[in-house]
Amino acid sequence: MKTNVTKTYCQESNKYEYNIIDALNMIIRVKDNHYNIPLNTLFTMAARKNPKRSFLFVSKVLGKHIPINPYSALLANLILATKYMDEVYNIKDETRIKELVSGFIDQNNCEDMYKKAIQTPYALPEPNIFIGFAETATGIAQGIFSYFKGKGFYTHTTRDIVLNNDFNIAFEEEHSHAKDHNCYGLSEEVLKSDAPIVLIDDELTTGKTILNIIKALQSKYPRKTYAVLSILDWRSDDDINKFNEIERDMGISIKVISLVSGNIEIEGSANINCIKQNEEVAICVEESDVSIEYLMLDDYFDKPLSYTSLDGEGNEHITPYLKETGRFGISCSEQNHISNEIAKIGELLNSKRTGDKTLCLGTEEFMYIPMMIAAHMGQGVKYHSTTRSPIYPLNKAEYGAKNGFSFESPGGSGVINYLYNIPYEGYDELFLILEREVSPNRLDSMVGTLKMLGIPKIFIVYCLSAENKPFTGSYSKNDVVFLLKNISDSIIETDTEDKEEAIQSGVHYSEMLPVEYKPTENYINLFHKSLDESARKVALAVAVVSEKIISNRGKDIVLVSLARAGTPIGILIKRYLENNYGIKLPHYSVSIIRGKGIDENAIAYILKHHPGKEVQFIDGWTGKGAITKVLIEACKQIKESLGVDLNSDLAVLADPAYCTTTFGTREDFLIPSACLNSTVSGLVSRTVHREDLIGPNDFHGAKFYEEMMDDDVSNIFIDRITEEFSLIQDEIEAEINLHKELSHEVTWKGLKDIEIIQTAFGIEDINLIKPGIGETTRVLLRRVPWKVLVRDYESDNLKHILLLAKDRGVPVEEYPHMTYGCCGLIKPLKE
Q: For 664, how many CA atoms within 13 A lie in the half-sphere containing its CB?
């Protein structure tokens, strides 16, 4: 039995004979190879499990069946693009094409040649519409499109069935195992134009698929001019005549451009039983121990397109799609933006590498973006993709599938995917790049297969995270996402006196919620008055702390506010940076609890969804500095548990405690958001951590007070301060310069004052002392206050404090010897 794929050169210099497998043979007669590209750099052969077509040209420039140097594929794309401009528009560049072909043939030089060439893309002389074919040619098609600028548009066909999109065309790939194609991509305006359509495939055997899509296009969007770009063109004379007939009958022109063209002749067949036996030997590998890490790349892509798709069983799903794939159409300018963002992703993933040999893996028709990412990941990276094409594997030299693995597609619908030519222990790490996040059970089959490859580290990279409805309280999701578990139906508030007794008896404060204070009409009026009076001052402090964040941490950051006092301040910082710098930073609000630490599940979520970005923690103000200390310890714990170094720098609006270096002011002034509880904090309660409510994989909990919506002023506060940003621009620079002269030393001056107060008033537990306007407000709203100390009765910052104290019958004493404007003392219940 013949088992090797062999290639022999006959007396005719253009004739090649291949023994594919067993008695299955092919003869190729090359008619045109204009650039003299060696055939063995373009493809090898394999036997496919398809009664309609028993053979497969296994491309060496697609990455679909054989792992490749991504720059090899990218150069092949540019060669085809250059040939298109030559043959269609008579734009010739002999130097350019010589360099491209030389770089492609000489693999050692392909990266340099690609990087040089892509700097000077071709300007299209007229609008062009480019359409790539799923699944195999999506990578090469978008790669060709990337070499153009001007009025070009790109889309690709897909096997997905999308319901709520303008349906453009549908057609069949008759010989394929998955024959149905749909094309949704472009706008009606573009398709109704007379712009030439350029159809891109990797290989033409008969050309029937090309004719099918042209017929579908002409029936709905007729035009005069088509071009076809393909690496290989094996159409017979009869096939070419069919193209000529279509041209005559429809009154159109079809220009076919390829790197190599000729005729093929298939002879004989293969012994299927022997092939199956060899196949079983080729895939018999056990799972090995593998470390798996997940990464999310949402930050690098535009807002996803959302459509209703239909799975193989007829079920409807809301599916997010990356606009950047071109599946629903992109322009040349949008393609250029994609390239810039992909370079950043490549740098990020390269920083995760620890070995010399890395495999980057795309899936099905999601090919171009993973291939481009691989190209930016440094030396020693190969690109590959899963496929729907079933091939008989055979571990023999020159055969196109030396081993093969099958598994269920992560996309579901019972589709089987295949992976070929992965030698056991051939790579140090594997990056599986998926268009969107899928449920773990949908990924089980594929991950189980990847564990058979002997690759010790696997990164599962999602370009889009799952579309879960974010918890935002009464805020917009554009302002903040609370990483909190909504426990509204699971917890009842505890009366203030009972809560105080429980806390002082040893129950942790995070295990209960106080009854929310219902402000009087006078108090609400005072809030609005104080908001108007202090809006400019608050806005200036927001500007100062925001500028310090940019100066200290840069723009590639995630804002993480500490719920809930930090939440509105985090929103204001986010809005200021968007207004003044045009950057839209992600902003999350997470729980941090004295005595329990920060919510590590929330931090892990942020790190997973924003890999490579710095975290900037934010709070409203400092009291004694207790939360600052908790944060410092929490960052140390995260280093131990997650292996990530987080900067414990805490940005606050006001730092009267002198316990952080990133502040808007160190004055203990009235921040209007401190006057109220949930009704100025997105209607979210303080955070809760109780074992019967919060599981090991849950975020910390909180209650959403939806019933208080009529009393909510959360967005009124945010919008009022935001209005001031445009009015204080002239003051910001002067204030920043003033801060440059100030000492930013952390002295814990406030804590020293508190220790003196503790001694003076004989208070055993320092936690019963709550310094500062913000903390004193909380004492009067949530706790059982004993007395309030004020530095100056006449201070305008204390009006709401004095009103609250009067309402609750709490004595107020003047105490000038402290850095704070006031200090709340909680009544010890056990004397």
A: 27
